[in-house]
Amino acid sequence: MKEFKFAVAGAVTLLAGVASLSPALAETTLNALFMKQAAYSEDDVKAMTADFEKAHPDVKVNLEFVPYESLHDKIVTAQASGSGYDVVLFDVIWPAEFAKGNFLKDVTSKIPAADSSKVFDGAWSTVTYDGKRYGMPWILDTKYLYYNTEMLQKAGIDHPPKTWAELEADAKVIKDQKIVEYPIVWSWSQAEALICDYTTLVSAYGGSFFKDGKPSFNEDGALDALKFMKTSLDDKVTNPNSREYLEEDVRKTFSNGDAAFALNWTYMYNQANDPAQSKIAGKVGVAPAPGVEGKSEVSAMNGSMGLGVTSGSKHPDEAWSFISYLTSQDVQNKYAKLSLPIWKSSYDDPAVAKGQEQLVAAAKQSIAVMYPRPMIASYQRLSSVLQTQIQSALFGSSEPKAAMDEAAHQASRLR
Amino acid sequence: MALSMTRDERKTPLEAWVLMAPALAILAVITFYPLLRTLYFSFTDAQISAAGTSGNFVGFDNYAYAASDAGFHAALIRTIVFTVSSVALETVMGVAVALLLNQEFKGRAIARTAIILPWAVPNIVNAMMWRLIMNPEYGALNAALTQTGILGAYRSWLGDPSTALAMVIFADVWKNFPLVAFVALAALQTVPSELYEAARIDGAGPWSRFRFVTLPGIVAPLLVAIVLRSIEAFRVFDIIYVMTRGGPIDSTKTVSFYVYQTYFSYLDAGTGAAYAVIVALLSAVMISGYILVIRRQEAK
């Protein structure tokens, strides 16, 4: 039997050798799932993939792009039905749930030990749950404060706000001078985007989601964060349509010159500075999201995403080599315009910073303080509860404290 | 019609079963199997995982949770509001348009074709279209209303919890009233014109003619259209998914969306299945109600 196996193995090796000489190769096809908006554009991902395919002629990658809002459900339904993807882009808030449902392969052993110290801790926490790594971080992202330099100048403001209170005051000046009707725009639609903005403020006000396993977003800093949001609406400095906006709506409003301040991801910097897509190209300033006096210098949340190999993938090795390629420092440095690298040393690379020095400077500060959203398996449900109750407060249907108490009550029953 | 059949005609011979077998087999695979599986899951604490969905038997636990879940109740009430308002509006508009299209006028053929267009638009496209029209910044609705002086300033439609559901109903009515209109139009053509003449001689005005001649003539087919629309409206999902995703503050979260979220976003197949079974039972009650009404109508 053994001899037979050897013979077969030998024949296969021989055949493979012959096959590799001929142009018709045995192709492996990978199916990969990405998202449509924010971070790397579809064109960027296609270009990177084309380069990868050139270097690996025996691997073909099918790319699929879906809106972020559909990404989670697409990953789990495809996996649960036994068909689907080899490589998926996943958000920082999913590893706990994905580990529980066994959706992703544990790739801890595949990651070179030397990489651990070369990549930001915040990036690693994106793919880590319970000490295991379920992929490679790819998009290292947080919310930044964008401002329209021309509008600030007109209002006589010579520097971007350092605290949220200062931002509110600046916005009032801009509004009073009728420079723009609603100076601040956010993504407060009933979606994860709302929680991202909220988490940024929670980090600024020194709040927390849970304390000793119990919900704590109905008290102290986390409650102050919501109160700030509500006040900025009541003072009419926040665009009321923010409550139905996602990130792309924020970008359009800001790029259209209809806002002085906006909170958004990395990708907006170069798109808002692109004359083809923006009316305010060249007038875009970026800074870390402000802090709160006595509590924080700057604020940031972890909005990073990673690439993982699905547990059902039939080509895990090829899938991993694709992921390794996309997350490699060279590739990330090359496509650093819409998403910044996960690699520490890239931030001191003049080639990466070229043309976006201000963004890279802001990133250095923000990445160091990225605040995480709760890492629990029932995060999706918690987020949904929070979205509903925060919106309820923002629309004035309930008082912030009452809304967050209700959220805490519902969250205490999460399994 | 069924009532007029004789006993012999009602017998179901073997051929009928044989002829129906392929259809039944397909139905068994795509309807009965998922239904039974859902029923089974509803008694378990099943979670969706990569290995498939499985769980332990928990009895009526999920149903008890559904009975106490305020979010589920609110979604049910919202769905009933959606169904009743959109079907009522579709019926009124559908009949009104059918009456117009039943008149003799130049270009009637073109009008009859044009009116079917909304119905031919796919649900998703319809939802996308209305979302763009109702956009608060550059939507055509705001432009039209402010330029005609009806509205003072641009406002949010889908982002305002007090209007969002109404706007989704509006988009649904626009898409689906042509179905009612066409059924009504076809039925109108079967009402004998002598009846109208007789009514006129008896001194009946337009309203009386509609109430006592037209309506009885079209009510049976109209009821069928209403039943179809109600069933569809009750399980509304796609238009919500595209236009509002259930927001703001859950104001458009219908029961199908709620089930979907529990099942696929929270991976809680057990609870989701229990919700789904309850919704299916409620649909069954609604359909039985309609069938009773239709039977009574036919018996007249």
UniProtKB/TrEMBL annotation, chain A:
Domain of life from the UniProt record: Bacteria
Gene3D superfamilies: Periplasmic binding protein-like II
GO CC annotation terms, alphabetical: periplasmic space
Main location: periplasm
InterPro entries assigned to the protein according to its UniProt record, in alphabetical order: Bact_solute-bd_prot1 (IPR050490), SBP (IPR006059)
Annotated signal sequence range: 1-26
Alphabetic keyword roster: Periplasm, Signal, Transport
Subcellular location: Periplasm
Family, as annotated: Belongs to the bacterial solute-binding protein 1 family.
PANTHER family tied to this protein: ABC TRANSPORTER PERIPLASMIC-BINDING PROTEIN YCJN-RELATED, ARABINOSE-BINDING PROTEIN-RELATED
UniProt-recorded name of the protein: Carbohydrate ABC transporter substrate-binding protein, CUT1 family
Source organism: Faunimonas pinastri
Automatic annotation (TrEMBL), chain B:
Range of residues in the leader sequence: none
Protein origin, superkingdom: Bacteria
GO biological process: transmembrane transport
CDD domains with a match to the protein in the record: TM_PBP2 (cd06261)
UniProt keyword annotation of Ribonucleoprotein present: no
Pfam families named in the record: BPD_transp_1 (PF00528)
Record's keyword terms, sorted: Cell membrane, Membrane, Transmembrane, Transmembrane helix, Transport
Main location as per UniProt: membrane
Ranges where the ABC transmembrane type-1 domain occurs: 76-292
Membrane topology type: Multi-pass membrane protein
Membrane-crossing residue ranges in chain numbering: 16-36, 75-101, 113-133, 164-188, 209-228, 273-294
GO cellular-component term (any): plasma membrane
Keyword check for Transferase: no
Compartmental location: Cell membrane
Annotated family: Belongs to the binding-protein-dependent transport system permease family.
PANTHER family for the chain: BLR7065 PROTEIN, SPERMIDINE_PUTRESCINE TRANSPORT SYSTEM PERMEASE PROTEIN
Protein name: Carbohydrate ABC transporter membrane protein 1, CUT1 family
Lineage: Bacteria, Pseudomonadati, Pseudomonadota, Alphaproteobacteria, Hyphomicrobiales
